[in-house]
What does this fold into?
Amino acid sequence: MDNVVVLAIISNAFWLMIFLGCIIFFRSEIRALLNSLSSVSVAGSHFELGDKSQTLKSYTILSNIFLDLLCNSLNREKFVEVFSEVNAQQLTKFTIKYLKEAPKEDINFLLMRNVAYIAGRKVLFQDALAIYQLLIDKAPTDMYLRNDMGIFLFDKNPSEAKKVYLDLMNENPGVLLYKYNHALTNITLDNFDEGIADLKSAIKAGHSDPDMLKRPAIQKLLRVQPDEYEKLLALEEEEKQRRQIHN
It folds into this structure.
């Protein structure tokens, strides 16, 4: 059997075993958490979570499970596949409630970012946006968090994504990723001249993503302004050769 296939099977089996083991070992705590969530009115704007101390205790245990799995597996998509829409709604509603009550020092931001990601992939747009906004309110200087929010907004509201990346770009002029993402939003919004200027600037400054001109948003430029796209390809190759000579 192909070694790649064997490794994939082992990897999936390993994480499935860990996941099931966590569920079995922490079944009483998880049951307590789910019981506390049973009082949530998903359609309403106000709901009670029952006994707060028990809920937060269960949440702490559950967050550790999620943190280990999400951080070590490096694949949040597996959780998107595992969660049903109902479970994702329960998780995100609880997360929003938790973020409103918990002090900053008690929040695991990586875990919360992953919950927001899951909510976005499950098309829970408003919930995901609320989680991102609550996190940013608590950590307004977290560049990674704001970048995540920009990525989330890109397909849903590119105008807002552009604002996120414009702020990030102005605050961090040396981070070429923000300039590149700003270019993507401009092209998505048909601001071709501004998008092309961003791309030229990013290429000249050394943005080294080999697929930077192959993204779907950039392919739109190929269809609308093929000559400009060819010029960008030529510039990218020219800069690549120049860097090789200097190195």
User: Anything to note?
Assistant: The radius of gyration is 22 Å. Confidence is low (pLDDT under 50) at residues 1-18, 36-50. DSSP finds 13 helices and no strands in the chain.
